[in-house]
Amino acid sequence: MGSSDDDCAEQPLSPPGRLFLHPRWNLIIHCAIGLKNPIDIDAIKSRLKTSLLLSHPRFSSLVVRDSHGVEHWQKATDIDLDRHIIILHNPVSTASQPVDHDTAVNDYLADLSISSGLSTDKPLWELHLLMAHNCCVFRLHHALGDGASLMSLFLADCRRADDQEKLPTLAYGKKKDKKRVNTSSGKGWWVLLVGFLSMVWFNLVFVVEFVMRSLWVCDSKTEISGGDGVELWPRKLATARFRLQDMKLVKKAVPNATINDVLFGVISSGLSRYLEHRTPNALPEGLQITGLAMVDLREQLGLQELSDMMKSNSPGLIWGNKFGMILLPIYYHKSNGPDPLVYLKRAKVMIDRRKRSLQAHFSYKTILSTMPYLGAKVTAWLNYKILCNTSFSISNIIGPEEEITAAGNTVTYLRVNSTTLPHALTMHMVSYAGRVDMQILVAKDIIPDPAFLANCFEEALLDMKEAASRNATMS
User: Fold this and answer.
1) What is the pLDDT of residue 369?
2) What radius of gyration do the chain's Cα atoms show?
3) Measured between alpha carbons, how far is residue 360 from residues 143, 203, 256, 331, 377 in Å?
4) Distances (CA, A) of 257 to 142, 203, 265, 311
5) CB atoms within 10 A of CB 85
6) What is the dihedral of CA 458, 462, 468, 470, to 10 degrees?
7) Does this model's pTM top 0.85?
8) What range(s) does the O-acyltransferase WSD1-like N-terminal domain occupy (predicted)?
9) 133 is an active site residue
10) Edge-to-edge strands of the sheet including 61-65?
């Protein structure tokens, strides 16, 4: 794939790529792929050899540093798959009692999240085959690309389970509704003026907020707070499971709400439940807890477009890390309120305001400008401070709408997490075939019970679903 981010043999890393390679970050993505049938090692190797992944220059390049310490991509002379594929034949759990496959895989991923980084004497990816658990784990350095790029590249090598001739379908690959364009044309000039002034105001407020967070403003300490050095602490990992249909039902209960609004309403409600359980009567009502969300800034392409452009080596295809960060505040409230949908309503108001700002673009441009002028050390420190001054991070990646096959084997789940950050709580969501799985990675000495936290999130959505169903019946 070509782009401004990287094309060929001696291409410098983009500023976000250099940020992710800095020792303060060294961020690696773990994608767990559950399989229905036993893993066929030969089939996987054969598929990899002809895959779009290995034809991509990033996955066949080394990271080298020039005399000034600036990182470059250098084309590798050969790819030895045996150095990239790690096979574990025995169950991976170290627990004294037998555990289910999901728990065993999560334990393995939790250990990986604080393990050593990827070796730089080979391209920055690995594939771990957990034979006893029918699971493949891709380890991909974040310098290779962001979640949207990497997911698209992976899915371009997959096929629909119900039709092996077709690529998977992604929601953002669908054509936009032309009827929704130019909706402001019938509004009066004063409405447009108020909207413009509102946008300017929120931009100013949110940009100043972002700068202050990167320097000194931080959240009050709670039972989920991390901080400087917490990225080195041991981890636990649990999975919260949702039905996409439930989220869609809840979404309809509030006009113009989105799935992301529902997601953040669930997080707000779930964290309030968890904190009330851990610290009853200890937190003031309305206490702000700030999250950090990663936002993809590129215009999304459908998988067919992506696959065609990959095969033609089109230079117009945007690849790499093009994302921004936005601050998402939630507020602690006791969970005995009469209407669970109030969390969704608050989330929608907050996210709508963030959408009217350029905070995400500002954060991206900040990385682009500080890296060449202030260097990787200062850029990494500023962004590390933002993590230390907030309480959690979250990402949300759109997956395929139907079941897929990888190397001829039906995929049962797709889950993503990453190596650790100063946050004691990081959450990564991926949708797949009508389901949504949230990986909840925690510093276990701060949050010892991530399974209970996952249950808080699941119950929050079910309560919202019940309230939405009740409202629909009454209307």
Assistant:
1) 86
2) 22
3) 19, 10, 22, 21, 22
4) 31, 22, 11, 38
5) 16
6) -170
7) yes
8) 57-262
9) no
10) 11-12, 71-75, 61-65
**What is the extent of the structural domain holding 135?**
11-168+209-474
In a domain, 58, yes or no: yes
Considering only CA atoms, which of 454, 382, 434 is closest in space to residue 171?
434
Domain count, the chain: 1
What's the token pair of residue 223? 């039972």
Q: What is the rounded CA–CA span in Å between residue 395 and residue 399?
A: 13
Per-residue pLDDT, 187: 58
CATH code of the domain covering residue 411: 3.30.559.30
CB 380 within 8 A of CB 142: no
Name the residue among 380, 318, 315, 381 with its Cα closest to residue 15. 380
Name the token pair of 326.
Answer: 């936005």
CA angle, corner 165, sides to 152 and 134, nearest 5? Answer: 65
pLDDT digits (tens, 9 = 90+) for 41-79: 999 999 998 888 888 888 989 999 887 778 889 987 788
CA atoms within 13 Å, Cβ hemisphere of 198: 11
**Which tokens hold the place of 47?**
């598929």
Can you tell me whether residue 450 is helix, strand or coil? helix
Owner of token pair 């991390």: 226
Active-site option among 84, 128, 142, 428 = 142
Which tens digits make up the pLDDT trace of 425-462? Answer: 999 999 999 999 999 999 999 999 999 999 999 999 99
Q: Which residues of the chain have pLDDT under 50?
A: 1-9, 173-185, 312-313, 315-316
Give 361-367 contacts, CB < 8 A, sequence gap 24+.
361/297, 361/324, 362/207, 362/210, 362/324, 363/210, 363/324, 363/325, 363/326, 364/16, 364/297, 364/322, 364/323, 364/324, 367/15, 367/16, 367/19
Is residue 2 situated within a structural domain? no
- How far is the C-alpha of 474 from the C-alpha of 23, rounded, in Å? 56
In a domain, 200, yes or no: no
